[in-house]
Amino acid sequence: MPVPWFLLSLALGRSPVVLSLERLVGPQDATHCSPGLSCRLWDSDILCLPGDIVPAPGPVLAPTHLQTELVLRCQKETDCDLCLRVAVHLAVHGHWEEPEDEEKFGGAADSGVEEPRNASLQAQVVLSFQAYPTARCVLLEVQVPAALVQFGQSVGSVVYDCFEAALGSEVRIWSYTQPRYEKELNHTQQLPALPWLNVSADGDNVHLVLNVSEEQHFGLSLYWNQVQGPPKPRWHKNLTGPQIITLNHTDLVPCLCIQVWPLEPDSVRTNICPFREDPRAHQNLWQAARLQLLTLQSWLLDAPCSLPAEAALCWRAPGGDPCQPLVPPLSWENVTVDKVLEFPLLKGHPNLCVQVNSSEKLQLQECLWADSLGPLKDDVLLLETRGPQDNRSLCALEPSGCTSLPSKASTLWDDDLGALWACPMDKYIHKRWALVWLACLLFAAALSLILLLKKDHAKAAARGRAALLLYSADDSGFERLVGALASALCQLPLRVAVDLWSRRELSAQGPVAWFHAQRRQTLQEGGVVVLLFSPGAVALCSEWLQDGVSGPGAHGPHDAFRASLSCVLPDFLQGRAPGSYVGACFDRLLHPDAVPALFRTVPVFTLPSQLPDFLGALQQPRAPRSGRLQERAEQVSRALQPALDSYFHPPGTPAPGRGVGPGAGPGAGDGT
To answer: For residues 600 and 580, is the Cβ–Cβ distance under 8 A?
Structure first.
């Protein structure tokens, strides 16, 4: 129904610009376009079905911009309707594909056939309008001549007159082509409202003031405007003006809208939504929102208006602790009002709750399964995760974090990444304390082992390293020299074993058995075997290396050196000697080069000139080098010197055994 001009002037104002709005005469819609273009409007409206986006076959016309303008459509000079004019700006998108024949032969295959790039472009442009309670779609056909086709350039616009809308209404406009090659354009236009519909506040109440004449009959409707789906009516009544409608502030929500219209045939309805930015309305929206459990796995958010939100599961334990979000393993899900959502649950639990956040702030939390499964349980939630090799780990969700714990329980949720399990608290505490006790026992055992090792190490250090001294009894003088060396080494932290001091055991067991037992014990204790080379020892080693057995000789029955070669040689031949054996010889009695090469794979020291290095080799492998090493070497040298003097310079006659064997003689120790 046309609105009287004085009401339009009140709504639009008295400025010259508003009063000079273009007036259209007649009820018919029309279209016109930019110069050079041709266009026409289909006779009837079409269905609003955008369809899916399809690939463009070549250059196409596409809407690039929407421009709106208020005009007046008048039945009489003073009775006009407010109308919305829309201009759709178009451009050429896409490109021609090169013909295959032209690519191959460098020219047109048939000059008599018109090339596609010389043809005009046509398009069917759809305009979709929505203004509660009206919605319609119109179709505009546009043709662009080839001369105006320029890729990526605007070719002009097509204008539609016009879409009638009520004062105060919100008009949403979409534009796209049929078929649709690109995403549709959209635009929202808010029309001015009539002055006789106002909103005022009075404390906790809100007043809708309708300043209309006493004879005017009108309808008033309150509804919730929805972004998706039809509006939800809340209240409707036919009234006679003027009227003041009182609303409680708790009824206000952002999408609460008011519609007013005269009770006359074909009347235009006026809509306003005055509470979109009202903070009280937004607070009331979350207070009115509710979570509804539909099935074990499905639920929805029920709210008067659409709102941006995301939701996730959380676990609420008894005792007032905050609900802990299960993110990860789950993730936040976007929420749409009145749309069914699902979580991958295998079974419900009263401690499982849903949290709804908006703008990173918790707005809503409800334990949906508590109503059907009872109050909160004293359970703990266990989280199982699976790695890339299907290795699994389990931890207990607690306020302080996730505590590792192996367990079996009733599964709540499962997917390819892991699972959630509910475990009774008493079992969890029992197993948790069992793990604590087990950890304590393991720690105590490890500590005891460390202390024991340290004690053994201290005992070993106090007792000294075991040293087995092997030599060849070339003569009685050499045996006295060996005894002096062994006695001097015993004054150090060394435990020396030599056959001179074990004649009884040697006779009872035999040389081979005695040596094997001493060698095994020495090496097991981390000790060292000292090979004291002399001319006689070198000769025996050479015989063994040549024949594999010792030849007959005048060696005494207590010569353990000859018996030891059966086990010493395999250690050297198989590379086990380094670290467990050292060699030594006396200055002026044998040059180190006279020692067979096989035995020089371990250090060979000359005594007493290399005593410090020799004593250092007899220490524990990882023992620090003592600052007293030089002092000890001097101590051993002083103890050894009388025996050396007696051996090399005996009173009266030359010492027996001198000059026997390779490398012997005066000056053998210094290489002269």
So the answer is: no
> How much helix, strand and coil, in percent to the nearest 5, is found in the chain?
25, 35, 40
pLDDT at 126 over 90: yes
Supply the pLDDT for residue 142: 95
Q: Which H, E and C letters describe 296-330, residue by residue?
A: CCEEEEECCCCCCEEEEEEECCCCCCCCEECCCCC
Residue with tokens 């095994």: 520
CA distance 288 to 305: 10
Cβ partners under 8 Å of residue 510, min gap 6: 563
H or E element that contains 454: helix 425-463
User: Given pLDDT bands bounded at 50, 70 and 90, which one contains residue 530?
Assistant: very high
Burial 633-669 (b: 16+ CB within 10 A, else e): bebbbebbeebbeebbeeeeeeeebbebbebbbeebb
Q: Is 353:376 a contact under the CB 8 Å cutoff?
A: no
* Distance set, CA 535 to CA 317, 423, 471 (Å): 87, 81, 11
- Contact between 546 and 531 under an 8 Å Cβ cutoff? The reply is no
Least confident stretch, 179-188, 411-420, 492-501:
411-420
Would you state the pLDDT for residue 528?
93
Name the residue with tokens 């119109």: 138
The model's pTM is 0.39
d(CA 648, CA 591): 15
Start-to-end C-alpha separation, the chain: 137
- Name the helix (H) or strand (E) containing 466: strand 465-471
**Beta 309-315 vs 465-471: how paired, if at all?**
unpaired
CB 592 within 8 A of CB 609: no
Mean pLDDT, range 264-268, rounded to an integer = 75
Length reported for the chain: 672
DSSP strands (E only) in 101-255: 121-131, 134-144, 154-164, 170-177, 185-190, 197-202, 205-210, 217-224, 232-240, 243-248
Q: Which residues pair with 161 in a beta bridge?
A: 30
**What is the SS3 assignment for 140?**
strand
Tokens matching residue 58: 């070549």
Rounded Cα gap, residues 47 and 57, in angstroms:
25
Say yes or no to pLDDT of 111 above 50: no
Cα 114 to its chain centre, rounded Å, is: 60
Residue 202 neighbours by CB under 8 Å, 6+ apart: none
pLDDT of residue 420: 59
Identify the burial level of 140 via C-beta atoms within 10 angstroms of its C-beta, where 0-12 means exposed, 13-18 middle and 19 or more buried: buried
> What is the per-residue burial (b if ≥16 Cβ within 10 Å, else e) of 376-390?
bbebbbbbbeeeeee
**Nearest partner of 338 among 362, 369, 314, 307, judged by Cα:** 307
Instruction: Count Cβ atoms below 10 Å from residue 493 Cβ, excluding itself.
Output: 18
